[in-house]
Amino acid sequence: MATKGTALGTTGTGKAAGQKPEYSPDQETAKILVVEDRPEHAEYIKFLLENRGFTVLSASRERQVLQLLKQGDVDLVLLDLLLEGKSGLSICQRIRNEEHFDSIPILILTSRTNIEDKISGFQAGADDYLTKPFKAQELLARIELLLQKKRLKESEDRYRSFVENLDDLVFMLDPGGTIQQVNRKAAGYLGGEGKKGPGASFFRFVAPDYGKIAREVLKQISQGEKVKNIYIRLKFGKKREIPFELTGFGLFRGGKLLQIQLVLRDISHREELQREIKRYMDMLEK
What we know:
The chain is of the alpha/beta class. The chain folds into two domains: 9-161, 3-Layer(aba) Sandwich (Rossmann fold); 165-273, Beta-Lactamase. The chain has helices at residues 25-28, 39-51, 62-70, 88-97, 115-123, 136-164, 184-190, 211-222, 268-285, and strands spanning 9-10, 31-35, 55-59, 76-80, 82-83, 86-87, 106-110, 128-131, 134-135, 169-173, 179-182, 227-236, 240-253, 256-266. The radius of gyration is 28 Å and the shape is elongated.
C-alpha cells in the first residue's frame, strides 16, 4: 500500500498521485483551519484533508487565525499546541473567548503525551486532543466526528429557535405525560403557572370534559401514530378555558418512546366567528 510519511504519521490512504479524492456529502462543504508553524507538517495535513474533500485554510500566527475566523464559514480548527512565539493553548482560549467563534470545534495536535497537558488543552476549550505521531485515519475519523457533532448541534439550535418562536403552543412531554419543556407562546398562556409547567402533568391543564380525549391522544402517539387536528380544551387559572386544535407526534429511538411533542393552535377566534355566523343566520330565519 502506498503511503506518505512525515514525523506526524502516515496517510495510509493508498491514493495514487493525481487520483481524485473521495468525497462525502458532509465533507464537500466543510472548511478546516490548520494552525501549524512548521511548513512540512502543514503541507502534510493539508494533503490529507484535501484528499478527503475538505477545504483547507492555513495559519501560523494568532492574528492570522482571528482574521480567517472573522471571514466566516470555518467549520473546525486543527491547532498545533507548540507554535513559535505563541502557545496553542492561548490561541485556543482566545477563540473560546470570542462570542462568534465559541461553537467552532477545536482539535489540538501535539507531541506532548502527559495527562497534565491534555487536561490543560481541554480546560482551554479544546474539543479533542490527538498526540503525534498519529495515524491518518484516526485524525480523519476524529475530524469527521467533531463535524457531525457540530452539525447536530446546529440542527438542534435551529429547531429549538423555530419551536421557541412558533405562534402555536408547544408542549414537550415525557412518555408518562409530564411536561418537560414549553415554548414561549405556551409559557405566555400559562402565565403565573408558566414556571410550574415543567415538572407538572399535562393533564393538569386539560379541561375536565377532555381528559379522556387527551389520554387517548397520548396513547396513540406512544403506539407510533401521529395525531392531527384533534379538538381539545385547556384550562388556565380557575375559570379560563380555551379551545385548541392539537397535533402530536412521538420521538423514538430504537423503538423506544423518548418524548411526546404536542402543538396546539388557539381556535378561540374561529369559534367566535362561527358563533357570530350562527347568530346572524338565526336572525335571518326569524
